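Q: Joint fold for the lines below.
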Amino acid sequence: MTWRHRRGPLVVVATLALALLLGTGGRAAFRAHLLARTGRDDIKGITCLHCHLPVSAPATRSTADTSDYVSPRGLVVAPDGRHLYVAASDGNEILRIDLKTSLVTGRVAVGTRPLGLAISPDGSLLAAACQVADEIVLVATDSFAVTRRLPSPSGPADVTFIAPRRLAVTHGDSRDLTLIDLDGTAPPRRLPAGQEPFAVGASADGKVVAAMSRVVKPTPDDVMPGSLLTLVDGDSGRIRRQHLLRSSHLSEDVVVSADGSFVLVPVVRFRHFLPTTQVARGAVMTSALTYLETEPDGAAITFPLDEVNAYFADPSGLILTPDETLAFVASGGTDVITVVDLTALRALAAGLDSSGREAIADDLGAFHRYVVARIPTGANPRDLAVTPDGKTLLVSEHLEDTVAVIDIPTLAVTHRIDLGGTPQLSAIRRGARVFHDATGTFQGEFSCRSCHPDGHTDGLTWDFEIDGVGLERLETRSLRGIRDTAPFKWSGKNPDIKTQCGRRFSRVLMRSAPFPPQQLADLVAYIESLPMPPRRADLLDPESVERGRILFFRSADNDGEAIPKVQRCDTCHRPPLFTDRLKADVGTHGKFDTPHLAGVGMSPPYLHDGRALSLEEIWTIYSPEDTHGVTNDLDKVQLNDLILYLRTL
Amino acid sequence: VRAGLLSLALILPVTILTLACILSAAGGQVQEGALIVTQIPAAAQPAWPGDRLDPDRRYPDGSRIVVVADPERPDQVRVLSQGLPRAGAPSLSFDGRRVVFTGSRSRQTGWTLFEAGMDGRRPVQILKLEKDCIDPAYLAHGRLIFTCAERGNNPRTWSLHTASATGQEVARITFGPGSAFDPTPLADGRILFAMQQEAGAGRPRPATALFTINADGTMLAPYTGSHDEDPWKVRPRATADGGVIFISAGSASPGHLERVEMSRPMATRRQIHDRAVLAAEALPGGGLLIAAAPESDDPESGGLFRLSSPDEAGSAPAGMMTPLMSDPDHHLVEALMVAVTPAPPERPSAVNHETDTATLVCYDAGRTDGRHGRASGQPFKLVAEMLARPGADPGQVIALGPVPMAADGSFHIEVPADRPLRMVSQDSAGRQTRSEWFWLRPGEVRACFGCHESRETAPPNRVVQALATPAESLPVKIQVATDDTQHAETSDAMRRAQAGEDMPHAGDTGDTP
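A: Joint structure:
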């Protein structure tokens, strides 16, 4: 906390005393103070406490104590079928489980938030993608000890072996797929792989590598966005093909067939161009499985997983049986594993003409031709593994701290493996379950997570019915680090998160009963605990960043002219929150809540309706009259410096 | 003496209160497994589904509701509808402690709703409307849904209403020209019900179909049977294994039990038994409780049966009817088993009573399945029509005027709320296709994905051109006359339509908003 904020209470007392003493004169002094600090005389309805309550910068780590929880994510089974390895994303460990006894027989600390997990073809080496630690951690299976830590900056999310000594790693923050030679015979090869590449998979021989981006690249209003599937030649390290899966996103897994002939990706099909007048009949989003033939002109067909009156939200993990006759999809929002007859699905795909391929993506009656079963699971199933004999499916029940063991011939849960998390659920843990649970929506269409993956943003704009359809689109705002940034909504109408997630929210969006009071309190606790992603300042040129910082806090333009207070960056985006929590008109046809800037580099698009596709466009296109701060005097290098600084926040 | 009297005055109320609490608590015990049965005298003839909207025919004098603890002792029953000469249509509360039903004190007073406790308390009339009200069901928080019609008029149009648990806050929620009846709650909070439709869209004659609706009357949607010929589809009930059963019948014939799957209600309709059925309810542990009609060659063959389902462990083979109960003195026309069941969620209302209009958006009026509506890909014009009031003669149609369509086939219009509406399309060859009658509630914003499009499809994600501008109003001033009839003044758009002026159609750009 800065001195400026430690003196806050004194200022409050002094101001109150002054107001009492002076009456009307006090109010005039208050307005004069506001004018001096903001350059604005139109601010109403706030008190001294609006600015002078002590606050701190958003944390980059969760405020929740998650150390008691395991939160299993990535799973791999040893080639000999004896052991299951589990990435404990909150426990920051890899667990080893004896599949005969279903007991945890080993734990090894890796790094913060291990998500993706891979095992070498000979079973001797594990690789864990530690997203927050920015490391790929290698663990020898014989000693079950860490043998090496590979720096992997910018958020590694998933990893796979494409050769005994070669890895493919997705990096969400630097938006690339990196091929890493463990022997160091070649430098890492970084390939662009779309917006937030998340999942990676490879064929049995490693010659076909597929990486899937999780969110869409922002597009203009009339251009269909989609997430990007990147196919790479594992031998040469060159991109073979990139395919935009239109109107699809939030893929957290990708599976390449053993022979590399096809790829399967679980996706959320969003319908963001349509107003959210209803959630029924898939009007907002549906879950699906995209089948793509890897040959150069191979078709990409999206098969719905939902039914007309039941939805299976947040498809996450995907796995095939070794004979590739069945596919299993984990629906994290609905706590269900959907079993797909892959033979039937591929036969259906082969018989579709081009119009049929397009039509089936929206056909909610199609599921009966390839979905053969739905298996209920514990809370928030995320990742899957199948034993080499093809007889057992293993499911990481992320918010249950268990692994479900499913007998594939009977498609029945035989038992659960307790990973040792504490059975007591904190308010934040309960809130995490509410956040990821789609059953609060009318027919289970989506969860909070469906628009806020990892508490962040889906990068889309939506037309909410609440203010009339077709009039205005609103960008999904990130929930990370928002605890002290009230009010909420772009209109700034909601004074707290509880109101934001309350009855009105359920009426206009979830179309179902509001959260019960306890669930709502838990949900608020969870959202308030959401941390900012790690800063990436170390990846950027420090001199440019420093020049950008000076520009952000400048009070005079390049000609030495004083910049009016109201047009300075740090007036509205005041540290430490980088928001003054007031509404402002920045030339976008109205006053909107001033967003905080923490993590702003990772949350395109920008402005309330998402019209700016990048930080640059905020000033180069949408502030020609310096309505969004004085920036027109900046040259190209200065603007780049300013943006680099913003990306460090 | 004074002290004694004072003590008595204090102790007596406390004692009475305590006894009342004890009795209430005892009465509150759920009698799981008991049957609640509607009996009509053996001399009467059970009603067919075609008599569904005639409560006098369904429940003749002497009809009553009883609790049966042991189906093998039909003579040992407890009458729930005591004091009422006619009663029927029982529905159990989700906590298994109360029963709401239709009853009549006399032919003069008509039909209304009563509620009885499973503890044996006498039934209490909970609705005081000057209408006949029948077929109640519980919703979340004890709220009720039922269907009502004005007394005396014949033929009558029945419409769904909701009320609070105490019979207050009565609100009408259906506004079509045909009767809406047989409401039952679904697990997701919607109401499933039957509604009469005109001939057309594949139906050679009027017929009922099943629809869903929210408890506030918004989001009317066809569920199943819209294009089928059989005149009656009644008594829908959700089952625990993801299905919906209902009784289907001809104009004057016994009903048969059919089923659709919730996952594909439009495409999975099938008959599940060939026995003539009067009523069916889902059993808590799986299977169905059937009230079967007597077979023609054996007048005493009727009664209650259990129809086993495929997923029941250790029960009779799937599809087998096992006799449960018969009664030589009565026909057993309805039955349900006492159980505690989860209440559906209470979904928030989208109705805004501060306005009398609603908004209708169609993403692509040209989108059709090519089977029940206009041929796909043909140019067409669209006109909106309405009836002046719910239940009005469908022949007395008021043209609201041409619907302004954008080039992509979308439109965005404001229409009168709580009035029967429909869209009429006319293709280049002059062929007309009508939509079913529908309505929107005040303030409702409804999106249609097409016209007669497949109900199994989600809408494609695309920019909707009509949403680029505010909704175009198709205003009609409804004037309420003293005789409670209503008529409409024509709007400019309506006058244009009546004068035969050209209507815009998909592809036109000159007259689009």
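Q: Anything notable?
A: DSSP finds three helices and 33 strands in chain B. Chain B touches chain A at residues 140, 188-189, 219, 221, 262-267, 345-350, 359, 361, 363, 412, 445-447, 449, 454-464, 466-470 (CB under 8 Å).
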